[in-house]
Design a protein that fits this description.
By secondary structure, the protein is mostly helical. The protein has three helices and no strands. The longest helix has 24 residues, at about 65-85. This is Stationary phase survival protein SurE.
Length: about 90
């Protein structure tokens, strides 16, 4: 999976798991796909998987890919917590 050292690919790799978690969780609950009223556990698991992917790309010395995964992970984390704060 990690063969090219590219920032854009790193961002894409980093967004795949959180988006899949959001879609799967929306399908399981069969409600509207709004992130605001959902439990945060699946998204935190997705962030943990992103951190594992970050570790593998860092061990392969793919610095730009690692930076892209890190950027996507931090953006997703910030969005989740911002949405959770304003959902109250």
């Amino acid at each position: 999976m990690f063969k090219k050292n590219n920032l854009f690919l790193g961002v894409l790799y980093g967004l795949i798991v959180p988006v899949l978690a959001w879609l799967v969780f929306a399908i399981i609950l069969k409600n509207e796909t709004v992130i605001l009223d959902r439990p945060v556990t699946p998204y935190l698991i997705a962030i943990g998987i992103n951190l594992v992917m970050l570790r593998f790309s860092a061990r392969a010395y793919l610095d730009k890919t690692s930076n892209g995964i890190m950027i996507a992970t931090f953006v997703c984390t910030l969005l989740i917590f911002i949405f959770k704060i304003y959902a109250r």
